[in-house]
Amino acid sequence: MINIDIELGNWVESGVEWLSDNASGFFNGISAGIDSMVTFLETILLFPPAYITILILALIAYLLNSKGRKFFSKGAWKAAGGIAVFAVLGLLLLHIMGYWEETMQTIALILVSAIIALFIGIPVGVYASRHDGADKVIRPILDFMQTLPPFVYLIPAIIFFSVGNVPGVVATIVFALPPAVRLTNLGIRNVQEDVVEASKAFGCTKRQLLYKVQIPLAKPTILAGVNQVIMLALSMVVIASMVGAGGLGQAVYKGILKADMGLGFEAGLGIVILAIFLDRVTQALGISRRQVSQEE
């Protein structure tokens, strides 16, 4: 019997320690950049009185869901009135319960994580859609990222970025990035071949074909990926709090540590309210005005 001891875990640990020792400047730069983005967004969200922020967020939800209908029309209210009222009541409830600062911290963490994940994921998805070889390499990497327990991401994140918001954001980016790549790739590949051929026949360059034909036609699928990225980022807030990330996740984590049912339930309810609000808003991005006109 062949007895082979592969110390894969030790190799990975050695690699992480080597990177930590030899690329500390690089990781410090990333840490400073992410921390600045989170702090900036938190400041913007917490600067106005809570009631103003609630009205702004409700108005954004209303405008996105009404999709260009007349502001006070019956159709606009039917399509967007529900989410606008929900946003006002839900966020007002969080404010009254004393979770306003945590709610805005959570939104800042989710937005920063989602923006960076999309900034990386969409170009990678475009590249994979145009190169079959790259797609074959990228796909198993995405499988690995999605199936590896998210707690595992926290270990190297702590080694590279210490504790606080930054390791939480980095772990969230790794966990939430795959749908952006997959759905961008899928959307562009599903553009009808005859449309692509007709565009080439009319003299489209590769850049024009991508930006004026493939991406516009793949937009609903790409925006579905945006929705998935944001939802996955939100699902990481409690796990990220274990490395010091703030927000509602930290309140849930405190509730677990103290066996405080009330604290855990209130903060968990806040996460649910945010999830419904962000889901409806990002879903509205994927509905085109043409679909609205057809429905009407």
In short:
With 296 residues, this protein is mainly α. It is built from 15 helices and no strands.
The share of residues in extended strands comes to under 5%
Largest sheet, if any? none
**Span between N and C termini?**
72 Å
| Secondary structure: number of strands | 0
Structural class: mainly alpha
Any idea what the radius of gyration is? 22 Å
Low-confidence stretches: none
Q: What is the molecular shape?
A: flat
Number of helices: 15
**Fraction in helix:** over 70%
Note the run of SSEs as H and E: HHHHHHHHHHHHHHH
Descriptive account of the structure:
With 296 residues, this protein is an all-alpha fold. Helices cover 84% and strands 0% of the residues. The protein is built from 15 helices and no strands. Helix 2 packs across helix 8. It starts with 7 loop residues before the first helix and ends with a helix.
Compile the SSE list and pairings.
Layout: H1 8-22, H2 24-46, H3 50-66, H4 74-96, H5 100-130, H6 132-147, H7 150-161, H8 165-176, H9 178-189, H10 193-201, H11 206-235, H12 237-241, H13 248-258, H14 261-285, H15 289-295
Keywords:
296 residues; 15 helices; mainly alpha
